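Q&A log
Question type: sequence-to-structure
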Amino acid sequence: MPYELRDHTADVAVAATGATLGDVFAAVADGLAAAMCDEVPASGERFDVTVAAESREALLFDYLDDLIYQRDVRGVLPVDHEATVERADGAGGEAGETLNGDGENATEWTLSGSARGVPLSEIYAREIKAVTYSEMDLSRTDDGWRAYVVFDV
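Response status: OK
Response body:
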């Protein structure tokens, strides 16, 4: 399992790993789903997710925020996430970095993926109110990427 739920003062955190940025983003999203529901049925239709942001960290935040939005608007629990992350210039995110004078990525990052939406009427789901930037970490490792994200409950 490429994610782990961790207790956090009055909140819940997800630590995840992946060989690529897309893998670690999907693993954090799977951790978000696990934080909301213990047993997920096999029902539900897949839907597409597309997000763009100015940095990798902002992209992770916006992706998870969009999944929470989808839960609230569609009335589904997004599970079984698939994600591909690329820089807008097509460099993919695994290649070298292009940084501006502030040390931030100079190009926009995009995520395209999908999730299966399990109807909330079929499950008991705990509420996660929001994703936070508190203690957020997205780092490259020798084996790929790791992320740590705290969610407000």
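Response note: Strands lie at 3-8, 11-18, 45-53, 76-87, 109-119, 130-131, 137-141, 144-152.
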